[in-house]
Amino acid sequence: MFTTAPRDTEASVGTALQAAVAEASALLDAHVLPEREQLSLLRDDEILELTRVAEELGRRADALRTLAAAEVGRRSGPERGSESLSARLGCRNPAELLERLCSVSGATARTRLRLGQHVAPRFGLAGGPLPSDFPAARVAFGAGELGIDALVAITGTLSPLTERCGAEAVAAAEGELVAAATGTAPDGAPPAAADEIRMQAKLWALYLDPDGVLPDPDRTMRRRGLTLGRERDGLTPLSVALTIDVAAQLQRLFDAQISPRTADHGRPAFAEDTTGERDGEHARDDSRTRAQRQHDALAAILGVAARAAESPSIGGAAPTLLVTISASELERRDGYGLLDAAHLSDDIGADAVPQPIPATFARQIACSGGIQRLVHDDQGRIIELGGPQRVFTAHQRRAIIARDGGCVIPGCHVPAAWCEIHREHGSGPVLMAA
């Protein structure tokens, strides 16, 4: 359908590339795809290794698809007018061409084009090569070491900083983020997940350009709002724009209601009872989507508020947000802290991802209304924790969550909200999956 006459200089290279890709595809057809139905026969170590190498193969394919999309975009540049590749094939722009050619969504097509601008080779007017915006990410991505999600997090966060902070500062941040994502950092830490890279990239952006990253409190307060629409077919639409702290507090309450470790009356959902039956069987058989569970959780929260009863606990404590800020940042006009805010919107839940919050908000927050402030000095020592209690309390649990982040067992990624506090011999209380 989409074909153009190749130039002689392009024919040999194109033929070789197509032959190589066809050969790789034939090898998959002959030796890999017929065995897919046998995955249940693999040992644990074999399925783990297969998952790893399959992901690496997919990353290499992503790199090829992104580079090809970038070339389509280059040949469809607006400066070419009616002679651009997309125009000659009857498409409005390169994104539409990729949508039709590859049968992908518009979002996927635009993502490939956007990433391609950062990792594809570039040439000047004289034909000489130009330096890449993200050389470290480009190399790691092409080698299959950096996933497309991590690449989006790095380039999307750091790209706007180049003009304000300079290429050298952005390159330093890029190098650290790529090393963290590929597991090549000097500290020997394993590769970080894409969501962790996104969080680290935001912190780098906050460090390099705090004025450009932190939200404007006045503008935020002007734009906040909540509107109930008109009922239709038994459903009432809700249009809402929440400030980051209100949204995070609502998500925390959702966690308290739908955590798989929380059943009726605050009991652990999977604990054995005296009859030998497992409590919370309905939780495992729950077929509701996450959106539906959150709707029902909101209904329960409103009922609790109407009855002025206690909120459901989460991990043994009332659902409380934690704002962490250093004493020096707290005193600065342009200072910032971290709020354990938005969770990932998937079907299994995830732990909180810290979000930057202006010191202006942090100074207004007291240990009430489900929000607690934790202040530490420049060495990380806690110097203020809401109330005056010095015994092991729910406040201290939140301090331990801020310190440990989640289960401390190596390789365990159970969210902090689903962990219990255990007193380890010689090391004090720590978070561990129960």
Polypeptide structure, described:
With 434 residues, the chain is of the alpha+beta class. It has three domains: 42-211, no CATH class; 238-307, no CATH class; 321-433, no CATH class. Helix content is 48%, strand content 12%. The strands form four sheets. It has a five-stranded mixed sheet with strand order 7-6-5-8-9. Strand 8 (371-376) and strand 9 (382-385) form a beta hairpin. Helix 7 packs antiparallel against helix 9. The chain starts with 7 loop residues before the first helix and ends with a strand. The model is unreliable at 263-283, 342-350 and 387-392 (pLDDT under 50).
* Secondary structure category: alpha+beta
Strand elements, count: 11
How many domains?
Answer: 3
Order of helices and strands: HHHHHEEHHHHHHHEEHHHEHEEHEEHEE
**What's the end-to-end separation, in Å?**
58 Å
Low-confidence stretches: 263-283, 342-350, 387-392
Inertia-based shape: globular
Largest sheet report: 5 strands, mixed
For the largest sheet, list the strands in their spatial order.
7-6-5-8-9
Mean residue pLDDT: 77
Per-chain topology:
Layout: H1 8-32, H2 44-75, H3 85-88, H4 94-102, H5 106-119, E1 122-123, E2 129-130, H6 135-142, H7 148-158, H8 162-165, H9 167-182, H10 194-208, H11 210-213, H12 217-223, E3 225-228, E4 238-241, H13 244-258, H14 281-284, H15 290-307, E5 321-326, H16 327-331, E6 336-340, E7 354-358, H17 359-364, E8 371-376, E9 382-385, H18 394-404, E10 419-424, E11 428-433
Parallel strand pairs: 5-8
Antiparallel strand pairs: 1-2, 3-4, 5-6, 6-7, 8-9, 10-11
